[in-house]
Structures are given as structure tokens and as C-alpha cells.
Design brief:
This protein is an alpha/beta fold. The protein has 2 domains: 155 residues, Bacterial extracellular solute-binding protein, family 7 (D-Maltodextrin-Binding Protein, domain 2, 3-Layer(aba) Sandwich); 132 residues, D-Maltodextrin-Binding Protein, domain 2. The protein is built from 12 helices and 11 strands. The strands form 2 sheets. It has a 6-stranded mixed β-sheet, sandwiched between helices. A 5-stranded mixed β-sheet has the order 2-1-3-10-4. The chain is globular, with a radius of gyration of 22 Å.
Length: 323
């Protein structure tokens, strides 16, 4: 009887240990950026919903040494159990993740939701091939150009060294006469401080978090593309959870994602005001500037479809048909 009780106790302990998880979450963004705050709120909710059986430790600012454009591979390889990454920064691994960064394809949050409805199943299937599962996907706010000098016409772009995200944005700025310098968020401020960069494209959230007013003077709300972050978990780690734990986490992700979108939508106005309060000009691009940008990128949706393949072409065609 004693031996049987001891065996039962050991078995129960083994099952309990197998169903517990303590995951590290790599976040490239700083601790105060809203995506990082969202991630911490999600981690807290998961711990509560699973009675502490699944814990997630959020590491902001690339503290684990994983760069934004390395995050997808880090999750795939199990270097970290979870990571959040911008879709466009990982197009080298999954090219169709760049579809929302096609310049001037998507106008607003409403259209972005429609694009996600179309392309998200493809994104999720591609990520599953890379040994991971998307838990939630949340966009950055509207995009901007931040410059030292004022920009009124296309001629003002000539020779400007602009931070870019990916192949799409590099092509765009080259066509406008600028010099593209692709880099992750953490590299921007050092590049501005040393004079390597003259201008940056990003959201107001990042601009405020990195205090661009210390280096740049002008903000133009170009709204030239959209960028969303994916919170992804390694499938090997995921499959170690119990079905009940998986269901609880999936339910939380589905419930909290719309709230995270609402936070994103509120961010733009808040951060534009913060930039103004710190001395930056904030304005819409001039008609000439906007026309130049749109003309330079008019064929990039077709180029993307040709480069990425039929799945991208179908998604773009379906999106255009519905708008």
C-alpha cells in the first residue's frame, strides 16, 4: 500500500510538472511602448487564467539579444518560447508577411481589418510551417516621415538618408531619390545621434518613445503603409500544455486582441500631441509630396504579387474587389 501511494504521488507530481510552463517572451520594443504593455497585460491574464501554471516573463528592448528581424527564426528554433515581431521585418523568412506594407494599398484601420480577414489564415499556416503559432496580431498606428529639414516637394527628398523597414520601403524611398538604410528600432537613435540618418519612417509611438525631438524637427503623417506585430509561440512549447491551458490562452488572445487594436487606434493622436509639445511640427504631407510618393509606388502591389506568388496575388485582388 505504501509503495502504491508513493507511486501515485510521483505520477501526480510528474503530470503536474509536465503541465506547468514558464516561458520567456522576447520583445524588441522598449518597456513603455504600448505593444510591450499589451504583452505584459496578456502575460498577467494568462497567469491568472491558468492559476499560475503558465507564466510568461516579458523581456522588452531586445534584452534577450534577439533582434526584431531575427524573432521569427528564434521562435522557430526554440531559442525563446515566445516573441513579438513586426510582420514586415520578417519577410525574408515568410514573404507574404509584407503584404500590408505595400505602399498606399490600405487606407485606414477598417481596411486593415479587411486585409487581415483575407490574409491571416495564410499567415497562420505559414507560421505553423515554421514551428510556431500566432496568438494575437496588433497593428502599429498610422505611419509618418520624420525629417530634420522641411519637405515640400519631391526635390526635397534628394539624397536624404531614410530609415526603412524592408524591401518594399527601400524600393519606395529609392524611387523618391532617398538613400534607404534598413534597420531595427534599437538601431535608430544611435544612427540619429551619429548623423548616419537624416530621416526615419515609423509610427508616432516609436518616435515619442525614442524622443525624436532631440534629433529631428518635422513630422509628416504620410500613412504610406501599415505594420502589424505578431505574438507567436513555439509549437513544441505549446504542445506541452494541457488542452485546458491551450484553450484558456486562445480564449484570452481572442478576447484581448480587439482591446489591443483599440489601444493602437488611440495612440496616434496621443503621440502626435506629445511630439508637438516637445517642439516638433506635425502636419499632413503637401499635395506635391503625396502625389510624388503615390506615383513612385503605383506598381508595387503588382510587383509584390509577382515576387511572392499566387497566394499574394489572390489576396490583393480580393482586397481590392472589396474596397
Amino acid at each position: 500500500m505504501i509503495r502504491l501511494l508513493a507511486l501515485a504521488g510521483a505520477t501526480a507530481f510528474s503530470v503536474s510538472a509536465a503541465s506547468a510552463a514558464d516561458w520567456d517572451v522576447s520583445i524588441p520594443w522598449g518597456p513603455t511602448e504600448f505593444h510591450t504593455v499589451n504583452a505584459q497585460n496578456f502575460a498577467d491574464a494568462v497567469a491568472e487564467a491558468t492559476d499560475g501554471e503558465v507564466t510568461m516573463t516579458v523581456h522588452p528592448g531586445g534584452a534577450l539579444g534577439i533582434r526584431a528581424n531575427e524573432s521569427l527564426r528564434a521562435v522557430e528554433d526554440g531559442a525563446v518560447q515566445m516573441a513579438e515581431f513586426a510582420a514586415f521585418q520578417n519577410v525574408g523568412d515568410v514573404p507574404i508577411l509584407g503584404i500590408e506594407s505595400i505602399p498606399f494599398l490600405i487606407s485606414d484601420y477598417g481596411q486593415l481589418r479587411k486585409m487581415h480577414e483575407i490574409v491571416r489564415p495564410t499567415w497562420e499556416a505559414e507560421l505553423e510551417k515554421r514551428n510556431q503559432k500566432a496568438l494575437y496580431i496588433v497593428p502599429w498606428p498610422s505611419q509618418n516621415f520624420f525629417t530634420k529639414e522641411p519637405v515640400e516637394t519631391a526635390d526635397d527628398f534628394d539624397g536624404v538618408r531614410m530609415r526603412t523597414y524592408d524591401a518594399n520601403t527601400a524600393t519606395m524611398v529609392q524611387r523618391l531619390g532617398m538613400v534607404p538604410l534598413q534597420m531595427n528600432n534599437t538601431d535608430i537613435v544611435p544612427a540619429l545621434a551619429t548623423g548616419k540618418l537624416d530621416a526615419v519612417m515609423t509610427s508616432g509611438t516609436t518616435a515619442a518613445a525614442q524622443k525624436y525631438w532631440e534629433f529631428l524637427n518635422h513630422t509628416y503623417n504620410t500613412n504610406h503603409l501599415w505594420a502589424s506585430n505578431i505574438m507567436s509561440v513555439n509549437l513544441d512549447a505549446w504542445n506541452e500544455l494541457t488542452p485546458e491551458q491551450q484553450a484558456a490562452i486562445e480564449e484570452l488572445a481572442a478576447k484581448m486582441e480587439p482591446d489591443f487594436w483599440a489601444v493602437s487606434e488611440a495612440e496616434h493622436g496621443k503621440r502626435m500631441q506629445q511630439l508637438k509639445d516637445n517642439g516638433m511640427t506635425v502636419q499632413a504631407p503637401s499635395a506635391d509630396m503625396l502625389q510624388s510618393m503615390q506615383a513612385a509606388t503605383a506598381d508595387m502591389a503588382d510587383e509584390f504579387a509577382d515576387r511572392v506568388g499566387p497566394e499574394a496575388a489572390r489576396a490583393i485582388e480580393k482586397f481590392k474587389a472589396g474596397n
